[in-house]
Description:
By secondary structure, this protein is of the alpha+beta class. The protein has 6 helices and 10 strands. Strand 1 (3-6), helix 1 and strand 2 (31-35) form a beta-alpha-beta unit.
Amino acid sequence: LMQILFSSETDPALNAAIEEQLFRASPLQPTLLFYRNTPAVLLGRNQNPWQECNLRWCRNNGVSILRRLSGGGTVFHDLGNLNYAFIIARDDYDQQRYLRCIISALQAVGIDGARICDHFSIWVGNHKVAGSAFALSGRAALLHGCILVKTDLEQLRLALHQDPRDHFTATTVASVRVPVKNLSEINRALSCASVRDAICRAAQSLGSEGSI
């Protein structure tokens, strides 16, 4: 059975630690974890921070910078962003299956036309509304993602806009820059809580519910 957990913490480093602890736990307990973070930039495992974000702006504005366990591109988190993590046995890992759960939830809250696109991101029309990334370790798999519900898109832009003074070439994996949109621009009634609850309902076939 899958447990569903809700972190009441908003510290990015603490939520990353909770996620990693669940991922590395032995024995593994299949889990769907939800959390929100205060403003932070999360780098993929193979990314260079000087290429991916404006370090000076982040430092001056209290935006944390962390490196994730997973690969994929750099993302911006704030309290308008809903984050989820499926932590499952490696043998059960199926990106399409779990992302279809997210798609079903979005459809249930009135987001028509949501679809899975390149790099296992979720788009509506010509805009990305959610990204995902994964990590594998031993018998465990982690699929996590961030959903733009009411994110401050101007802060996102400023945080992820490279400072020209830091421009250089590197062999690290660079993010693919694409247009993004909040779900609340499509359905003004949406909140992180309503999207979270819809995902819980869509995931009912995956397990049972708990809390932290």
